[in-house]
Please model this.
Amino acid sequence: MSAIHAQAQAMLGSDAVAHVWTTNADGSPQVSVVWVIAQGDEILFGTDASSMKARNLARDNRVILSIEDVERNERGYQRHLVIRGRAQVEPGPDPQLMDRLAQKYTSLKRHPLALRDSPTAVVVRVTVDRMSGVGPWIEDNLSVAVS
Model:
């Protein structure tokens, strides 16, 4: 059974981009927009090893992903999914993953950037520690988690 709620899986399967928060060496937040894909109990994205997010995650693997839905709940709140987790940075390009992301977000069969085959590309695997936000992926009936 997946640690990611089925409706959260559906949201992660949409073309909504994720905002990924990492922690800079001075403790300040760093945020980037990434294309994500759910695979089993993990959320994956690709980046370059020299990117700030990859360097931050190599030092401190705590990560937050935030994905906004296009729908509103019955109270009028914008639905969104917030995932707190731990990231593992794996060296080496993964052309299949990059092509899957390109297909999902752009309908292209091949990822348009050099990151697809770059020797400095990395894959980031996020293991979910906790999910919150506004939406059906929250266990309580209010569909709102405050944290």
The chain has three helices and seven strands. Helices lie at 6-13, 52-59, 95-106.
